[in-house]
Amino acid sequence: MPELCSIDFEERGDCLIARVSGEIDISNSEIVGKRLATKFDVADHYVIDLAETTHLDSAAIYLLFTLGEGLRTRRRTLSLVVPQTSPIRRVLQVTDVAATIEVSAHLDDVISRHCSDVSDADP
Questions:
Q1: pTM recorded for the entire structure
Q2: 49-79 pLDDT per residue, tens
Q3: DSSP-derived pairing of the beta strands 77-81 and 15-24
Q4: Which of 2, 35, 110, 111 fits 115 for a cystine, CB–CB 3.0-4.6 Å?
């Protein structure tokens, strides 16, 4: 079976950015969730960049809510990056993900709000 999605991680200051490309659905949501959860303790703020994600089903939406709750129990925060033109934007609106998880259209906005750069710290 071909891989439906890929995940790349980048640490930036207080944040961990997980870039998810492709599709998340019932066939891979458990594996995707486990992969994302392995990095929960890396940073204070977790960003899932869904700019290159083309499909989410109900299992993927459940996964996002579960990840958000898992991070809250660790006193960490979660933001999703979903551009206005993204094919998954509508499903996130219909399911009201933004009621419990910050959703932003631009990664740079999330970085400026949450990801203080270690090199910017006072000596």
A1: 0.90
A2: 999 999 999 999 999 999 999 999 999 999 9
A3: unpaired
A4: 111
